């Protein structure tokens, strides 16, 4: 922006702004250079103030002031400091360049400011490399915060603990902090109606720990370059979240202990690490065209949680149950048990493999039926080919190889065959003992698996 030919002294501007004789008529200054420090700290300004295409030699200070709407549109100024200020309208900074590369402190300071309107930063360029470009911790902006249409921040943007009933709108914004391990946006404890970050480009981390959002949190088509946790939403509460990034984030996404009513994402941009323990949701978007493929993809999604935790599997199973997909829910819980087995000692792993191979941890009891059918066939063929020896000749029912095999395999009750016959051949007698042992194992694992399933569900 070229330096305006017309210049005016900041002290003279201050006197005009505070001139009670002007009444409620807005103060407007265009195409001027303001020399000196324009300081309105603690002042009660009874009129709207507007600067258009002006250049300020020094930062403007409104700390603790009470005023109507303030606008710096298309201006250049080294900083705007308005902490604890009260605005009866909005703060309009559209198209302005604010801050200094070699300066100190934040470019725009609105800490604990109270605005009846919103904060407009569309097309603004905030310059505070290595520092905080926009500091709005504890601010209340009832009309929302708008950082769109070419907004660029060189430095961190922060709204920790802020209340934004009108939402935070950062669609297409650019935040450059110059390092992937520092925060580009900090919104811990933020309360807002929406957090719209579609198309956001940030080379640092995004943090929304403990944020409360009554509608949508969207990072659709966003590009996140921060390492560690590119996006941290631990303990966040939101009606919906969209994590369909433009490309895979450089770091992980941490959703531990968060709650979202609706979660939408894209498996093509899942990060390598996902923090999912404690995450709860009421609805989960499909990521595959068929239900079978969807549950396979979601199980791969859960494996991106760095360590085994049972809760993400139970939450996913509950989601499928609510949708009426009981088979998919059982599959998720079976995979949970298999992953849990990897955390156990040798004895636990051995027992787990036995439960898995015989009854699928109780989620596939039909496997026991397959074993029973195969062993019944084996025993029937072997016993049919050999001649048994009656324990009491002339008494009891005639020998039946199928009934005899089932009598050995089923430990409860009896078909009257096992007590009536024995074998002279050691190998065949050994098979009968083996079938008795296997029958007890199948029964024990079946009861243990079903009991385990019922107790967990």
TrEMBL record:
Highest taxon of the lineage: Bacteria
Transmembrane portions of the chain: 363-383, 431-450
Keywords from the UniProt entry: Membrane, Transmembrane, Transmembrane helix
Protein known as: Pentapeptide repeat-containing protein
